[in-house]
Amino acid sequence: MSDLWGLGDDGFEEVQRPTPLGAGGGSAHGAIPEALLAGLNPPQREAVEHRGPALLIVAGAGSGKTRVLTHRVAGLLATREAWPSQILAITFTNKAAAEMRERVEQLVGEESRGMWIRTFHSACVRILRREAEEFGFKDSFTIYDSGDVRALLKRLIKERGADITGLTPGGVAARISKAKNELHDVDSWARTASLDNPLDAAFLEIWREYDRELRRANAFDFDDLISQTVFLLRAFPRVAAQYRKRFRHILVDEYQDTNAAQYALIRELTQPVSRGELPDLRDDLPGASLTVVGDSDQSIYAFRGADIRNITDFERDFPGARVIMLEQNYRSTQNILSAANAVIGNNFDRRAKNLWTDSGDGAKIVGFTGYSGHDEAQFVADEIVELTGGGMAYSDIAVFYRTNAQTRALEEVLIRTAIPYRVIGGTKFYERAEIKDAMAYLVTVANPADALSLRRIMNVPKRGIGPATEAALQAFADEHDITLRDAMRRVDEIALGPKVAGAIKDLAALLDEFSARPDADPGEVLRELMSRSGYTDQLRRSPDPQDAARLENVEELIAVTREFRRQNPGGTLIDFLTETSLVAAADELDDSGGQVSLMTLHTAKGLEFEAVFITGVEEDLLPHRMSANEPGGPAEERRLFYVGITRARQRLHLSLAMTRAQFGEVNPAVPSRYLEEIPADLIDWRTPPTTMRASAQPRALGRWRDEPREQFVTGYRTPPPLPKGPKKEFANTITEVRDNSGLELAAGDRIRHKDFGEGTVQAVTGLDKKRVAEVRFDTAGRKRLLVKIAPIEKL
DNA sequence: TGTCCACCAGTTTTT
DNA sequence: CTGGTGGACA
Question: Does the keyword Hydrolase apply (predicted)?
Fold first, then answer.
């Protein structure tokens, strides 16, 4: 997908070509080739063939919506109803966009070039860059991620002493984000707020200052990308008319996740264009035809402003809309679907929908209750060994959890068991300090107005430019109404020591040198910046072994920029920065690499796996404690569980623990209310949740204590005895210095394991650091152990 | 200015 | 248990 970012060749000029047909044409075009319709079921086929102003495809999980969407686009192209450049397809992730483009290309080949298949954010960036000059921005603007936003807010809050009022960067960021997603700006919000409230007044002031800083830095935050595009289209009718005329067919994926700003964007783009709005337009043009695909049962982003009413009210919003339901599922077994249907059926207030499949019941859902999170993780690892032993690939297996904190126990056990895995999302590469430093250098070069990035690198590596010096520079900048960067160039006019002044001048000269070459190869720019700034040297000289790893990361980033340039010949620094700002967790997932995928339930949406583990199915985790107070919280959490269940094709595992460790404290855990909602006969409990923990019963869950459901009684078996020996030290077992690489092991050897007790080695495979022992323990069963780090001794 | 240490608070999901 | 912050000292 080399043109994912649409560098060049976006076919905008094709607007000038004759328009094949307006939207809602209907019959004048040729028939859709049978090849594009073959193999579709009746509603799918109708969804591909229907023509009209608006179409809502209610696509249940696994009902083939991507197929429908891509065939629909291919149909528009194949019949010449639309030029590629007249199609705008919007997704939420780059991965979804890439997949769609690829599949359309497979269907119609080169024909598909020039389509806009992009995420909301990248489409908006595209429009904003193109029109930047029009409304007073420079097209070199950069994008602040949530870390940048927090850093900036932190400074602003502190500067005004607003921290004592209780305003936190996180809280303010969330409020601003929410407001922007509802298309408020500072002034419109101020009108609705009661400014008698000192907290609101302080918030408003911070927000105003924050926006001003962004403007000065020539930067947008994430929410601005959408809302500013909407404002742009509203404020400049001629610009709006251009895009309305250009995009004749607009398709939106995951429509249930759109927020108010995104909805407004769609509305703007689907307005008709009247004669006279554009000089070369001879006739009135109807609004673009709109196709949206979504499933309100999979709406899990309300916390981010997604408004489920956008999809439930679609028919009212777009008169003449057609609604098509896709309910046949091609992904999962009937057992999995029955569980999913039963769970989601507890959400009232939804359009009834019933997923079904004709592919058979499949295996039962496997349930497990562990003593602790580690015990649960061990179950996951054991099952994975079992599954892969039966021929399943690691990459066909995924483990889901509600919160990122849950990965620790899982990772620890997976490492110990030598199961290759990958954490999707989580602590990301781009969040590491050294990567942020390196990126800040690039941002500073690309966007000299950005003071935030400049501040970050000003004294990294150490140049003797401390807070006092920085403040002096800033004061000079404010006084002369210039940027911080300009102030650095005029350092001679500021009374500073000669050493400091020299350091500042050197840095400014280095940055300016590259700023002057915006089209240079980003990889080269980064390599030179890192070496000439002394950044790499500083890491290389450091005695701290961690710095060696940091150096590697910086080199990895250089490799990434090189790869970017290779994929996008001529791609500029700004292009690279835009790409990296807009990557989402799910984008990291490339199907290559035989690894188990670990991710949050949110990240899992839109993906599918042969075998799925949903862990931590407990109260306070799923549903999460924080959701309890929010309106619609429990229902949204239920949808989240539903999304998780429906990711599984063949095998589904639900697990929980009786105790959960958080902050080093161990707390009792209670089975999730959602477990009760799954019919008992669908689950095969290896170890059922017990009702023995009277102390752990929360008030709201009387049922678990008072009238335990049959499923837990019939499935009941005595849990295995706790491993003996000294109390468990799970935490940090991995980082503990242990190196068994010298240990000779062979089949038949007897060993003792810290947790599992004594056992017999069955086989040893792998080499050196990757040596894996398969051991049959006397009480704990069969386990795989990574010899190098296993807490074992030979007997 | 830089470094070290002790204390503190905050912990959901993320385009 | 983590990361961030602020103070004390070199």
Answer: yes
Residue with tokens 């562990």: A370
For residue A34, pLDDT beyond 80: no
Nucleotide nearest to A661 (CA to C1'): C1
Please report, as a single letter, which amino acid is at residue A271.
Answer: Q
Q: Please state, as a whole number, how many other Cβ atoms lie within 10 Å of the Cβ of residue A58.
A: 25
Above pLDDT 90, what percent of chain A? 22
pLDDT digits (tens, 9 = 90+) for A456-486: 888 878 888 877 788 888 888 888 988 889 9
The reply to whether A93 Cβ lies less than 7 angstroms from strand B is: yes
Q: Which of A314, A221, A309 is nearest to A257 (CA)?
A: A309
Distance, CA of A347 to C1' of B12, in Å: 21
Return the ∠ at Cα A380 (arms to A375 and A382), rounded to 5°. Answer: 90
Residues of A catalogued as catalytic: 65-66, 253-254, 298, 647
Contact A332, A607 (CB under 8 A): no
Q: What's the pLDDT at A90? A: 94
Domain at A143-217, CATH class: mainly alpha
Residue A720 pLDDT greater than 50, yes or no: no
CB proximity A459–strand B (7 Å threshold)? yes
Q: How confident is the model over A181-228, as pLDDT tens digits?
A: 999 888 888 887 766 777 778 888 888 889 988 888 888 999 999 999
The integer distance in angstroms from the CA atom of A545 to the C1' atom of B5 is 21
The gap between A250 CA and B1 C1' (Å) is 58
State both tokens at A139. 């097209």
| A430-585: CATH class | mainly alpha
Q: Is the CB of A690 under 7 A from strand B?
A: no
Q: Do domains A34-133+227-328 and A337-341+343-428+587-687 have the same CATH topology?
A: yes
Q: Which residue is nearest to nucleotide B12 (CA to C1')?
A: A403
pLDDT digits (tens, 9 = 90+) for A325-354: 998 889 999 999 999 999 998 887 777 778
Predicted TM-score (pTM) of this structure: 0.79
Say how far A726 CA is from C1 C1', in Å.
22
Could you say which architecture CATH assigns to the domain A34-133+227-328?
Answer: 3-Layer(aba) Sandwich (3.40)
In strand B, which positions have an atom below 7 A from any protein CB? 1-3, 10-15
Say which amino acid occupies A776: R
- Residue spans of the domains in chain A: they are 34-133+227-328, 143-217, 337-341+343-428+587-687, 430-585, 749-794
Q: Which nucleotides of C are covered by protein (CB under 7 A)?
A: 1-2, 5
Determine the protein residue whose CA lies at the shortest distance from the C1' of C1.
Answer: A663
